[in-house]
Design brief:
Blueprint (H helix, E strand, L loop, with lengths): L2 H4 L6 E2 L1 H12 L7 E8 L5 E8 L7 E5 L2 E5 L4 H4 L3 E6 L4 E6 L12 E2 L1
Parallel strand pairs: 1-6, 2-5
Antiparallel strand pairs: 2-3, 3-8, 4-5, 6-7
Length: 116
């Protein structure tokens, strides 16, 4: 593990399981140069909603870090809301999908779809 991977508190941390899933999703796409983009947008019953997507765009002010060979991009407006957040991928009998553990979230809705 590199120093950048140990010190994720200044940005987003992507776990190895999540990175593996992103690589799998990217390999299924025809576009080249896709990265994982995570942002925060108004929505949901708690006020803010996470958005994860595969993206080829480069926006002015993007914050980029690489985890296990996967570039993770955040726009400059979302970055403060996501500082210290950890993105993981779970695949169990109870649940499957990406999870976000965000120390900045003061609370979330009952369904876990949004936060404030």
């Amino acid at each position: 593990m590199s120093i950048d991977q140990q010190l994720g508190t200044d940005g987003i941390t992507l776990t190895e399981a999540a990175a593996t899933k992103v690589k799998d999703l990217v390999s299924q796409q025809e576009e080249e140069g896709l990265v994982l983009r995570i942002s925060v947008a108004p929505g949901g019953c708690s006020g803010l909603r996470y958005q994860l997507s595969l993206d080829e765009r480069e926006l002015e002010g993007d914050v980029v870090k690489e985890w296990f060979g996967v570039p993770v991009v955040t726009d400059r407006m979302s970055a403060p809301y996501l500082s210290g957040a950890t993105i993981d991928f779970v695949d169990t009998i109870e649940a499957q999908g990406f999870t976000i553990d965000n120390p900045n979230a003061q609370g979330s809705c009952a369904c876990g779809d949004s936060f404030h």
